[in-house]
């Protein structure tokens, strides 16, 4: 892990070029040689944590702008990646933040980013458990779940929806916040039908993405934050 | 607007192609393949139309053997939203002709509504330059071949500039239409790490020619594939004097 931490610090740059410039994050950006690399040239496999995905940017912006909704709450950041939403939830005064990602390097990157932003980690509980496999045994069920850009694959989205539905059935007042730039599983009728899990989504806000984010992600020009309700 | 882009897996343009000993074709095993360069240009144009909000969705399609999926992943990493692989076995792929691809695409377009098709002007392996033209014919859509510039003209038409011998030809086509991309249309982007990662998760649908009711029956037969004639070696001359006398000897100058 020490070697991995060193690798992260050596191969990323600190960036404030995103929707939450009050946060500086270690990222692989256009300025890094790895930006033009292929995944197999990267010793840490599929470094999702090295990018600040459009959906995560919008969700994190929303948390920072609506901090009171997270104060004293227990919050689960599902698929934390670089950890921006976790940092925002801690900053907003959440009681506990369960920071979850199946990739240990994402947890490491999140810890490094906490330190860089002087965010205390005493309220964060890190876990690499795959919650999709734990059959809903998430205890205690948090007050809010954060999902930044997690709906990029139809089958995977289906698994997450089924987990969310189960959790909300057990705890109806649980809030589900989603940040998403209009990826197919959440937005296209054919994919939603294939998944077959009914839910309603309430649009909370739509953030225009900065030009360079649009360019990096080939065409997404805005990212939205939704509250999901499974009925 | 939904845009369909055809992408073909071909031997990489930088590879020195070798003819098989029995002259039935070229050596393809263990040879680097990549997306046909003109198709890269076609795809780039479609993605730019999407970035300009003119297109809503870009779908890449490839007809070919299993390995064509690599080419489709590249297309997804370059910005296509989804991919369709019309799979044929390696032997059938060898026999497949532009007319078969055009028929498959025509059926696909009938099934799923598209407003624009962009193809490369030709594939660099067979240099056939037929698919776009035949597709437009099958669909009875207008065609604009060898485009070097594409601009919207209202919401129903496109203005397409074509490079022709000694000048430019600008035409207006009504949508839906078929366009083929020429070299100077744009400079395709390189796929970046985050986009390659994302591309692995984008939808890739698998089909067969039979799904479109198309039978791969060749209309032509390859008689022989041979190397280009070897150029004869030149000679070195010592100075201008001997150059002039050599040229005179050969009757090149009086
Ligand atoms: C596209 S990234 C989003 C990261 C971050 N939320 C953001 O918006 O920048 C997806 C993340 O989900 C993680 N992930 C994938 N499957 C997971 C699972 N079953 N449980 C938790 N995290 C998972 C990946 O490791 C990756 O960090």
Can you describe this structure?
The complex is a heterodimer of chains A (231) and B (254). By secondary structure, chain A is of the alpha/beta class. Chain A has a single domain (52-230), classed as Vaccinia Virus protein VP39 (Rossmann fold), CATH 3.40.50. Helices cover 33% and strands 21% of the residues of chain A. Chain A contains 8 helices and 9 strands. A 7-stranded mixed β-sheet of chain A has the order 5-4-3-6-7-9-8. The longest helix of chain A has 17 residues, at 154-170. The radius of gyration of chain A is 17 Å and the shape is globular. Chain B has 254 residues and is of the alpha/beta class. In chain B, 28% of the residues lie in helices and 26% in strands. Chain B contains 7 helices and 11 strands. The model of chain B has no long low-confidence stretch (mean pLDDT 94). The A-B interface holds A 28, 30, 34-39, 42, 46-48, 51, 152-154, 156, 184, 191, 214-219, 221 and B 47, 50-51, 53, 78-79, 81-82, 190, 192-198, 201-203.
Head-to-tail CA distance between termini of chain B:
65 Å
Helix content of chain A: 25-40%
Helix/strand class of chain B: alpha/beta
Uncertain stretches of chain B:
none
**Residue fraction in strands of chain B:** 25-35%
- Count of the domains of chain A: 1
**What does the oligomeric state look like here?**
heterodimer
Please report the first level of CATH classification, the CATH class of chain A: Alpha Beta
CATH topology of chain A: Rossmann fold
Please tell me the CATH architecture of chain B by its name: 3-Layer(aba) Sandwich
CATH architecture of chain A: 3-Layer(aba) Sandwich
Largest sheet of chain A: 7 strands, mixed
* Helical residues, percent of chain B: 25-40%
* First-to-last CA distance of chain A: 43 Å
Arithmetic mean pLDDT of chain A: 93
Radius of gyration of chain A: 17 Å
The fourth-level CATH homologous superfamily of chain A is Vaccinia Virus protein VP39
Please mark out the parts of chain A with pLDDT under 50 across 5 or more consecutive residues, or reply none. none
Keywords (chain B): Electron transport, Mitochondrion, Transport
Main location (chain B): mitochondrion
InterPro entries (chain B): ETF_a/b_N, ETF_b, ETF_beta_N, Rossmann-like_a/b/a_fold
Subunit structure (chain B): Heterodimer composed of ETFA and ETFB. Identified in a complex that contains ETFA, ETFB and ETFRF1. Interacts with ACADM.
């Amino acid at each position: 892990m020490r070697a991995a931490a060193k690798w992260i610090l050596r191969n990323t740059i600190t960036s404030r070029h995103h929707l939450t410039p009050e946060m500086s994050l270690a990222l692989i950006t256009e300025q890094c040689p790895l930006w033009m690399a292929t995944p197999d040239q990267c010793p840490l496999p599929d470094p999702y944590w090295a990018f600040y995905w459009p959906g995560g940017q919008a969700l994190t912006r929303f948390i920072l702008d609506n901090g009171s909704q997270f104060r004293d709450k227990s919050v689960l950041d599902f698929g934390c990646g670089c950890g921006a939403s976790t940092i925002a939830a801690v900053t907003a005064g959440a009681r506990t933040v369960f920071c979850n990602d199946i990739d240990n390097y994402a947890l490491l990157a999140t810890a490094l980013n906490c330190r860089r932003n002087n965010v205390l980690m005493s309220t964060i509980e890190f876990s690499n458990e795959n919650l999709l496999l734990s059959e809903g045994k998430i205890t205690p069920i948090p007050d809010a779940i954060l999902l930044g850009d997690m709906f990029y694959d139809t089958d995977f989205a289906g698994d997450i929806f089924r987990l969310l539905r189960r959790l909300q059935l057990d705890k109806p007042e649980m809030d589900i916040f989603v940040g998403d730039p209009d990826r197919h599983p959440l937005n296209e009728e054919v994919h939603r039908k294939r998944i077959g899990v009914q839910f309603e989504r309430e649009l909370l806000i739509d953030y225009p993405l900065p030009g360079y984010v649009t360019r990096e992600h080939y065409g997404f020009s805005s990212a939205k934050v939704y509250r999901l309700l499974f009925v | 607007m939904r845009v369909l882009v055809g992408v073909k897996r071909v031997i990489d343009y930088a590879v020195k192609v070798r003819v098989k000993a029995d002259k039935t074709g070229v050596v393809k095993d263990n040879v680097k393949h990549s997306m046909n360069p003109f198709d890269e240009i076609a795809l780039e144009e479609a993605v730019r139309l999407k970035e300009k909000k003119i297109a809503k969705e870009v779908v890449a399609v490839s007809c070919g053997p299993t390995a064509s999926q690599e080419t489709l992943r590249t297309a997804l990493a370059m910005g296509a939203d989804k991919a369709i692989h019309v799979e044929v076995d390696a032997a059938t792929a060898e026999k497949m002709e532009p007319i078969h691809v055009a028929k498959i695409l025509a059926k696909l377009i009938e099934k799923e509504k598209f407003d624009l098709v962009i193809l490369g002007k030709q594939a660099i392996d067979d240099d056939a330059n037929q698919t776009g033209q035949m597709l437009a014919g099958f669909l009875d859509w207008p065609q604009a071949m060898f485009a070097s510039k594409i601009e919207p003209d209202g919401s129903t038409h496109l203005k397409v500039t074509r490079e022709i011998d000694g000048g430019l030809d600008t035409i207006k086509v009504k949508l839906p239409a078929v366009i083929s991309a020429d070299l100077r249309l744009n400079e395709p982007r390189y796929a970046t790490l985050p986009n390659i990662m994302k591309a692995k998760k984008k939808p890739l649908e698998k089909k067969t020619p039979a799904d479109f009711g198309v039978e791969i029956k060749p209309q032509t037969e390859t008689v022989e594939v041979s190397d280009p004639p070897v150029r004869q070696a030149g000679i070195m001359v010592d100075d201008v004097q001997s150059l002039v006398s050599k040229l005179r000897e050969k009757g090149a100058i009086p």
